[in-house]
Amino acid sequence: MHRTEKEKKKQEIKRGLSRGKKAITGFFAMVYLTLSAMPMTAFAAGSVTQPLDNLKTLVIAVIGAVGVIILAKNVMEFAQAYQQQDSSTMNSALKGIVAGVMMAGISTVLTFLGF
To answer: How far is CA 59 from the centre of its chain?
Structure first.
């Protein structure tokens, strides 16, 4: 008889643990369902995209500054080629002037387009 009482206690403990596991599982299932059904608000409008906007502004400003430098260099190169009547260097300088104007004006064009 002594063994059967121990076995009964073990079985009762196992049943209690089984009930506890079921209760805990049910509780967490309800918590999950409740949280997944709630609408979540996303606050990503200003704080998350602000660094990307700053980086975009910086890159556009650097491109514009390099464009002005290229433009100035090629204008001087064109003037020297014109003075020496070197048509090959004049042609190259004119291409550089066009590239410099495009790079210097990129910020204005992108602002006009809405970037």
So the answer is: 15
